[in-house]
Amino acid sequence: MCGIVGFVGHKLDAKDVVLSGLTKLEYRGYDSAGISLFNSKFRSFDIYKDFGRVQKLKDLTKDTLKSHIGIGHTRWATHGKVTKDNAHPHYSQSKRFIIVHNGVIENHDELKSQYLRDSLFYSETDTEVIAQLIESFSDTLSVENAILTTLKLLEGSYALLVIDTQMPDTIYAAKNKSPLVLGISDDGVTVASDLMALVGFSSKYVALADHTFIVCEADSVKLYNLNHEILPLNYSEIDLDESFSELGEYQHYMLKEIYEQPSVVSRIVQHYLVDENKMISDEILNDIKASDRIYVLAAGTSMHAGFVGKYILEELAGLPVEVHIASEFAYHTPLLTHKPFFIMISQSGETADLRACLMKTKKLKYKTLTITNVKTSTLARESNYYLELFAGPEIAVASTKAYVAQIGVLSILGYRLSNASFDLKEALTKVALSIEDFLEHQDVSSLVHKIITKRNCFYIGRTLDYYTSLEAALKLKEISYIQTEGFAAGELKHGTIALIEEGTPVIALISNPEISNNTRSNLNEVVARGATTIKISLSNTSHKDDDIILKDVHPLLTPMVMVVPTQLFAYYAALERGLDIDKPRNLAKSVTVE
Ligand code: F6R
Q: Are residues 301 and 411 in the same domain?
């Protein structure tokens, strides 16, 4: 979702730091970009912004003078259309203050009518209200107090950077609910919404807590709470590997990340099953064992991994598990058992719907474990426990390797909670080999012609294959924009089969030997009504005319391999359709608004 980067320093050109940071954050999804830089000739700040890509911003700023300070933003529209006027940065009315903001100010209408009835607004955004409020309070207060007074009035989420054009060496920043990190080095101070944007420019960082306010100059940073009391700055080393964000031989990140899946599985095995010091702690296991029900909360792809996790945890550990959509759970919490334990699954660790759930479970004093790919994320920091996915940064908006990693980690958790006697290390290694074998030896691109010209498409499967069909359908929808549904194979005949007509693609997932004949019967029902079919099976469920046959894996781990051909279908369908694979329209990598 929106990205923020600000820099103040000595040697470097702020434009380079900010644009480099914004480029690294492009994968999060956005529709407009903007930057404000100090113009040393006129000793004033210029703003460059427009809808479209960061590249446009690079073109707009190619002749600017070197600047020691700058703030930039990529916007994912929430209030107001995708226009140049709505792009950030925004000025306050007299142009004294310049601001960029991530998040949503829920009471912006009330604030406008209570405090800003005479102000002129240039955009449709909620952000401009913040700039105008700061300006109105600065008539009587110092800048810092004007900002603090404004922050206390805001309801909602914000990560924001403010420049007072009268103090051209300072960036003011504040955070509540939306992520913000601060990085330092000998070159200066960088503030950004994602650690990734600091890589290459900062050696140490602090992830800021909610309701904090910072004042940054090239050589000094001061952290405050909203009462203007100074707080300690506890820095950590940045240990992100930049090579993860390079495309290498691949045309798209999504393809690269699909191909990385065998090594992601191996990494998880190494970490949680080989390295004795890094196994899941007894504390986590004991807390789960002491509970009477696990509640899994997640959204989208992570929720689909949660469904698989439920199956695995119930089968292996015999613990009852409920899976809930985060955005629903947060505001319509079901009746809970006496001793619930919560597992949040989130690739980014920043999903606002999940954060709202976490606030709720914390208030109720229940224990929470977050399973995430980003150990520095808000959810990882604020939960009682976290388990890392070790998938490496996922850049493509459509999640692939993080999904497989989520199931991998859930299987290890289920195993450690159980008395199972099979060798999970060997079973997961077989998963890695099965995926590798498929990626090396089978070409799905030729099957994609059965899908790409069609209006809609179905994935069907039973039990674990049903969950995979949900994920497969989501992937095809988000990348190729083909209307797709994932269906329990036996359920189709209860109504939805009415949509099957001549040529409708139906892709069957057949990995469970006990019920593979039932799925094949359901497939015959759609063939009889004209459907074009694709069959994906495992060696032990296969028929010789199946389109894709994957090597067998442990029955509980089949989703980790069955999903891979469907990821490639989505990829090749989008490629054939000429779409922006890594940045599909309207989507964001990290959904930081509710
Ligand atoms: C789809 C996808 C999304 C996310 C969802 C939750 O490819 O990635 O459905 O799974 O937005 O995000 P996280 O996992 O970051 O909480």
A: yes
